[in-house]
Structure formats: C-alpha cells, structure tokens
Amino acid sequence: MTHHTPTPPVRGCGNTPILKQRGQREVFCGLTGIIWLHRKMQDAFFLVVGSRTCAHLLQSAAGVMIFAEPRFGTAILEETDLAGMADAQDELDDVVARLLARRPDIRQLFLVGSCPSEVIKLDLSRAAERMTQAHAPHVRVLNYSGSGIETTFTEGEDACLASMVPVLPETDARELLVVGALPDVVEDQMLGLLAAMGVTPVRVLPARRSEDIPSVGPNTVFALTQPFLGETTQVLERRGARHIPAPFPFGEEGTTAWLAAIAAEFGVDAETFARATDAPRARARKAIATVAEGLRGKTIFFFPDSQLEIPLARFLTRECGMEALEVGAPYIHKQIVGPDLDLMAEGPVLSEGQDVDLQLDRARASRPDLTVCGLGLANPLEAEGLATKWAIELVFTPVHFYEQAADLAGLFSRPLRRHGILKDLNGGVA
Ligand code: SF4
Description:
The chain has helices spanning 34-40, 52-62, 79-82, 88-102, 115-119, 124-135, 155-164, 184-196, 230-238, 251-265, 270-292, 309-319, 334-343, 356-366, 375-383, 391-396, 405-425; strands spanning 18-22, 44-50, 72-76, 108-113, 140-145, 175-179, 202-205, 220-224, 242-243, 299-302, 323-329, 349-354, 370-373, 388-390. The protein is α/β, with parallel strands linked by helices. The protein has 3 domains: 18-25 and 292-425, Rossmann fold, CATH 3.40.50.1980; 30-151, Nitrogenase molybdenum iron protein domain (Rossmann fold), CATH 3.40.50; 175-274, 3-Layer(aba) Sandwich (Rossmann fold). Strand 10, helix 12 and strand 11 form a beta-alpha-beta unit. Helix 12 packs parallel to helix 13 (334-343). The radius of gyration is 22 Å and the shape is globular. Protochlorophyllide reductase is composed of three subunits; BchL, BchN and BchB. Forms a heterotetramer of two BchB and two BchN subunits.
C-alpha cells in the first residue's frame, strides 16, 4: 500500500557524519515553555520555584498577554532560602495552599524547578508527592525542571510532558496518542484529518483539560508533533507504548508523510487516504509555491536552538528551494529525526551541540542569506550585515500541518525581504 509518500533523495543525510562540539552555548532556558503550555492546559497552573530573574524572564516572554486569572506564577526564593536559613519546603507548602484555596479551577499544578532551586537542592519531587496527598483528589501536583543549566528552551515542554507520563492511567486499548502541544485550532485540523482517514479515537498529550488526560499502555502507538520530545518518548516507551517514526508535519510533504505513517499503522487504504488529504495537499502546495518565490536559491544556516532545525531544513530545502549550508541542532536523536534526515539531500554540514565561536566563524565564512539563531546571536549578526530569524518565533507561531505550511515559509521569507529592502535603502549595503 502506498500513500504518496515523498521520494527520498539518492543520497540523504541519514549517514552524514555529525560534527559534535561542546563549548560555550547561547540558549534560552526551559521556563520559556510555560508560555505556550499554560495556554494549552486550561486547568493547569505552573508555579516556578525560582528567583526574581526567573519571574522577570517569564513576564517579559509572556509579553502583553494579560489574564484575569493567570495560569503561571513564581514562588520567589528569597535570600534567606538561598542561604539555607529558612525551610523552603514549608514556605512552598504555604504558597501552594494559599494558591489552591484561592483558585479552585486549578486541577493540575506543576512545580517548575529553576537554577536557584537546583542550586539549593530543593527537592521538588518530594514536595509534589506531599502536596498531591494533601490536595487529592481535586489537584494533581507534578514537578519538572525548567532550569537553564545545560538545557534548551524547548526542553521545558519535554520535561513537563515526561513528568505527566508515569501517572497516566493504564489501558489495553489500541489507541493513537499524538504527543506535543499544538495550538487548539491546529490540533483540531489534525484531528479532522485523522478522523477523515477513519483513525479514531485519538488521544492527545498534553490534553486541554484534566478530564481528557489520555491513558497509555502496551497497545498505545504514539506520534510526535514536535522533535524535541526525546525524554517523553523514552518514558512513553517505558510504559509499553510504541513510537511511529515519521517526518514531522511541517510543510505539505512533511504533513503527508506524517499522516501516511499513521495510515500505514492503522491499515488505512490508499483511496481513503487520498480522499482525506488530496484537497488540503493541493491547497498547501499552491500556497507554499507563492511564498517560496522569495526563498528559492537562497542559503540558510541554522544555529542550534529550538531542536526544530532538522525538520525545518528538510522543508525549506525540499519544498521552498533553499540551500542549507549548516544545520545545527542541540541534540540529534536519530530515532526521532531520522526520517527527516533521510529525506534531506546530502550537502549541509550537520552539527550537534555548539562551540559558539567556531560556529560563528563558519557562519561568517559562508555568508548565508539567512541565519536562524537565538536572540543573543541575532543582533551581532545583523550588525555584520547578515539577515537573521529568531528560532523562538518558530515555536510561538502556529506552523504545523497543511493549512499553516505557507505561514511557515513566510516566517523565513519575511526577514529576507526586510533585509533586501534595508539593503536597497542603504545603497546596496545592509
Ligand atoms: Fe535564569 Fe535559570 Fe531562572 Fe531560567 S531558570 S530564568 S536561566 S535563573
């Protein structure tokens, strides 16, 4: 049975040697994930156990979003806590008791560890267990780390989802579980496509509300919508679930290949598959073609940041006509991004981890038309005349599946266009 899956290149990147470097890195911290997770999980609350710096980071990352009842906050560790002069566990119990008394709508509470809480070795798993007992059955308290030490900003979501897996109810049902936080409207499109293929019921992690929390067991098969969910994948496998390897649903091809992998798993026939996907595929292809005009023939260089780099490079090279010079990712889990690597033609340098100075030298030497990087690198590179794209926007914007494919291409064509206009205004010098 075939599902019109994309044709791989003669030689893909699956066996390309990976340049591994360790050194100074330029990354955002895992607390950032709270910004999109709190929007997704409507009866959850994220309590960062951290310092004023952490509170400040969250507030500025959340920007202008103002909620009457916010779903995240910070329990500030004061200097007395940090110096070991107060019992931070007792203080945390008080903060949580007050919060839950004020907010009966909270059904799931995440205690989120930070650099300061880790420095003083505050045991948040012990706190979460104690609080779950104290507030059961109304509230489930879990904990994970969003600390910036040795993490990338998308690892916060991975750690959060992984913390939920061990307490998911057990099931023997053969069910599809889709894993990764998507904006509700995108999730609904995905569920619509799967339903049109006859794949039901479908469970999602994270669920919008705690009553929809999925069960998991030996007959669960799961597909990832985000490539940064390595730890979540491992803990799901530990619960007996099986991963369906697939390219990620970015662009028309990626979406089709992702759906095709699920269709193959559930024995969907080619005709049903075509009926469900032909129209949105054609729409996506047409929409991408218009936006991709400005990308064709342009070169791109990815610094490691969001962990979306490999699937995005696959999309941009295959569907938008770009040439990838280097694709850097914080970690390369072949189990997860292998299908994307196989589809990407040999050519770009693949790098894992980062020694930022050496990588900056490579970027300067190759003068890419567009550089995808974190905020810390974007300004200096722009000052040197290179067009940049902030990786973090890729996670804040709806980019998955057919209807968002052109918007995804647009995220890359816009900075190029802006750079071109600036260059013209400056008489050819950007
Ligand atoms: Fe900074 Fe660490 Fe707090 Fe993140 S967790 S804001 S890196 S102190």
